Design the sequence.
């Protein structure tokens, strides 16, 4: 127990003696992992919004009023039943003028109350809301609806979902690339920090070797130092991205159709993994930084040089 306490104390002494270099290494790890973790959170937001849109209304057919050459209510309901029979369609829902106005009021009532007051409920078109069996089939359904003379206009979330899916793919590749590139960078930075710490204490390391200290006894304080640096940097990265995501949630009300809330479980799961990654990066960096000096010390039996 006393040996463990000694090694831990030596690691803390190393951190204090090289405070400026340690801060630089922690900040480097922090910036690197913040970028990687931020890309991961952004990818999660994209995937959540894609799933939200995929599980909702995919196509909206806005109907002409009867005085515009469209159908009466009975005819629109008959058209909805016909659309429901299409193989690509999962469910349909009819939204009359009153329901359309209530929806409009819900979306803009708090942000633009003057706009709600100016709108005549009868001016809003009725619509048929369509959920597809597969979002990839939206083009066929949109084409068939536009061919119908009773349909005023057709809107679809298909293109947006395709864009989100493409963005998600790019973010997955980017996140993986950043994780690898920035992880290697973190290892190199910590290794350089440890090498500087060893250089500052090269005489002590040489004396310890001369009196018979094993390589592991010399190595452990530096490994602990690197591990602490990695954990601090990763912890700051996770905390910063979490705070940023919480601030994003505050603007979610201003964008009703966009989900900006990332579950706490996501941060807990990935936060722990990033802390482990930071610790491993610190340990690997320390071992890499130590290897050259210990080999030279073993070869010379005297002093450790740069």
Sequence:
């Amino acid at each position: 127990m006393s040996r463990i306490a000694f090694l831990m104390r030596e690691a803390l002494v190393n951190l204090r003696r090289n405070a400026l270099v340690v801060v630089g290494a922690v900040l480097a790890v922090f910036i690197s992992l913040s970028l990687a973790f931020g890309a991961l959170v952004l990818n999660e937001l994209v995937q959540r919004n894609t799933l939200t849109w995929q599980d909702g209304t995919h196509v909206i057919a806005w109907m002409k009023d009867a005085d515009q050459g469209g159908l009466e209510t009975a005819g629109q309901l008959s058209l909805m039943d016909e659309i429901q029979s299409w193989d690509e369609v999962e469910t349909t829902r009819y939204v009359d003028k009153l329901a359309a106005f209530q929806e409009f009021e819900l979306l803009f009532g708090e942000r633009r109350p003057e706009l709600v007051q100016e709108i005549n409920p009868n001016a809003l078109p009725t619509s048929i809301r369509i959920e597809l069996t597969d979002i990839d089939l939206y083009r066929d359904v949109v084409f068939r609806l536009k061919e119908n003379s009773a349909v005023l206009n057709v809107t679809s979330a298909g293109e947006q979902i395709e864009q989100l899916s493409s963005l998600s793919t790019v973010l997955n590749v980017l996140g993986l690339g950043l994780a690898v590139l920035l992880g290697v960078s973190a290892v190199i930075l910590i290794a350089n920090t440890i090498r500087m710490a060893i250089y500052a204490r090269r005489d002590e390391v040489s004396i310890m070797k001369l009196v018979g200290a094993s390589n592991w006894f010399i190595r452990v304080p530096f490994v602990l130092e690197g591990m602490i640096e990695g954990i601090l940097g990763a912890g700051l990265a996770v905390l910063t991205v979490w705070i940023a995501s919480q601030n994003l949630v505050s603007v979610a009300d201003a964008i009703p159709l966009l989900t900006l809330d990332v579950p706490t479980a996501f941060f807990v799961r990935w936060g722990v993994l990033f802390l482990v990654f930071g610790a491993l990066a610190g340990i690997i960096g320390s071992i890499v930084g130590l290897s050259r000096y210990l080999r030279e010390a073993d070869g010379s039996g005297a002093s450790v040089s740069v």
Notes: The beta strands are 59-63, 89-95, 127-132, 151-156. The domain at 58-156 is CATH 3.30.70.3040 (Alpha-Beta Plaits). The first strand starts at residue 59 and ends at 63. The chain has a mean pLDDT of 77.
